């Protein structure tokens, strides 16, 4: 049916993607984007250090969904409709080629987020999408024929469908117009943050990283292996960020005060680490000169001192007791976390519109007909690496197809 009026709430990644696809799939429809701030696509602009991490080179849906601490089950059927290959093809068709980096993150060939923004703005103009800025939605109400009355701080609209892509927020008040429709908002908790270690002198080694360490939170089941980076406030890097996302609820409950245990050897246990010592124990090499497990020399020296071993000590003089102590420090190094720091500007919230209230075949609300949701406004979040944008593109495409 032509001549429908569809309103999109939110001028971010999911909002633009929904608007452009709705315009293309439903020719003749009037599409309006309502953005409450004076900025469009602000997360797209800053993502990936201004390069825009569009998606991740992960084509197998069963593998892809493992990168979402919340929403993985629901996204399975969404990704069966629009997946990473579809994202790559969508941008390519519009003249934007993506490239893959060694860690599987995908960026525009241009290395600039402006390429993605220009693409969206060009498409929006081509389809005559009406973009209204500094207009805040206050209320959504069902009226005759299941149309929706959208009340903003400036206007009233009666439309055929609404796609809500108002993004993730850390305050409930930003969801109040959604709550008024009868939807529930799952608890809003920070995700993707780095670990603060106030007063710990490991911070003097900022900039050093270990490619394969295991980080876990004491008294929880959460642990991840991967690169760990020492920063001027504590610990970061892919393993730490992944841990922060999957353990978001536990960290919140612990008030960001917990013991963090690091296995610098990767995944070896104490006995296996002591086995590795054996080939060195016959040598007169000073211990400081033979760091193990890819640990940078300055960090290795720091860990030797933590195990109360003089860095100048030759391996051949290392007694049983000191071997045990060093193996313990290498496999179970304890740091007291007090607080967190948001990861760059890439603020991600766990929480949002309750997933049980959405039909994931269409992204339509089960509470209000012709109201659809997509992107981070839902209680879905991914780890760093392009996964949050892939959620935005896929849910937006399904919503745009279904209106």
Distance between the termini: 10 Å
Question: Per the principal axes of the C-alpha atoms, what is the gross shape?
Answer: elongated
CATH architecture name of the largest domain:
3-Layer(bba) Sandwich
Would you count the extended β strands for me? 22
Strand content: 25-35%
Main sheet: strand order: 17-16-13-14-15-12-18
Question: What's the gyration radius in Å?
Answer: 25 Å
Structural class, by secondary structure, is alpha+beta
Number of separate structural domains: 2
Q: Helicity level, as a percent range? A: 25-40%
Count of discrete alpha- or pi-helical segments spanning 4 or more residues = 13
Under CATH, the topology of the largest domain can be stated as: FAD/NAD(P)-binding domain
Uncertain regions: pLDDT < 50 for 5+ in a row? none
According to CATH, the homologous superfamily of the largest domain is FAD/NAD(P)-binding domain
Would you state the CATH class of the largest domain?
A: Alpha Beta
Mean pLDDT: 96
Major sheet details: 7 strands, antiparallel
């Amino acid at each position: 049916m032509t001549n429908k009026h569809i309103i999109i709430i939110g001028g971010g990644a999911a909002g633009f993607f929904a608007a452009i696809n709705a315009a293309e799939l439903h020719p003749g429809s009037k599409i309006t984007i309502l953005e409450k701030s004076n900025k469009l696509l602000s997360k797209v602009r800053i993502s990936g250090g201004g390069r825009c991490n569009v998606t991740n080179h992960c084509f197998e849906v069963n593998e892809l969904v493992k990168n979402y601490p919340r929403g993985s089950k629901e996204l399975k059927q969404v990704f069966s409709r629009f997946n990473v290959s579809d994202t790559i093809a969508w941008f390519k068709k519009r003249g934007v080629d993506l490239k893959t980096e060694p860690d599987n993150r995908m960026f525009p060939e241009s290395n600039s987020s402006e390429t993605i923004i220009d693409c969206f703005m060009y498409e929006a103009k081509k389809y005559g999408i009406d973009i209204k800025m500094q207009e805040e939605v206050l209320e959504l109400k069902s009226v005759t024929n299941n149309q929706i009355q959208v009340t903003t701080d400036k206007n009233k609209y009666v439309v055929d469908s609404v796609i809500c892509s108002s993004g993730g927020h850390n305050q409930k008040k930003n969801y109040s117009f959604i709550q008024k429709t009868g939807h529930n908002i799952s608890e809003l908790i920070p995700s993707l943050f780095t670990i603060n270690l106030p007063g710990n002198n490991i911070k003097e080694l900022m900039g050093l990283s270990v490619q394969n360490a295991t980080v876990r939170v004491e008294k929880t089941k959460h642990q991840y292996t991967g690169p760990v980076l020492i920063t001027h406030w504590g610990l970061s890097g892919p393993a730490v960020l992944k841990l922060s996302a999957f353990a978001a609820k536990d960290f919140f409950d612990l008030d960001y005060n917990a013991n963090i245990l690091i296995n610098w050897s990767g995944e070896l246990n104490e006995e296996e680490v002591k086995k590795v010592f054996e080939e060195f124990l016959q040598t007169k090499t000073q211990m400081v000169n033979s760091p193990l497990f890819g640990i940078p020399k300055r960090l290795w020296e720091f860990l030797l001192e933590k195990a109360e071993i003089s860095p100048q000590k030759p391996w051949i003089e290392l007694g049983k007791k000191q071997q045990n102590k060093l193996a313990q420090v290498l496999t179970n190094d304890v740091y007291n976390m007090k607080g967190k720091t948001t990861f760059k500007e890439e603020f991600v919230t766990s929480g949002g519109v309750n997933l049980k209230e959405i039909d994931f075949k269409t992204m339509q609300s089960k509470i209000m007909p012709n109201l659809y949701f997509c992107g981070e406004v839902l209680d879905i979040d991914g780890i760093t690496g392009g996964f949050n944008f892939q959620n935005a593109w896929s849910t937006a495409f399904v919503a745009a197809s279904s209106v």
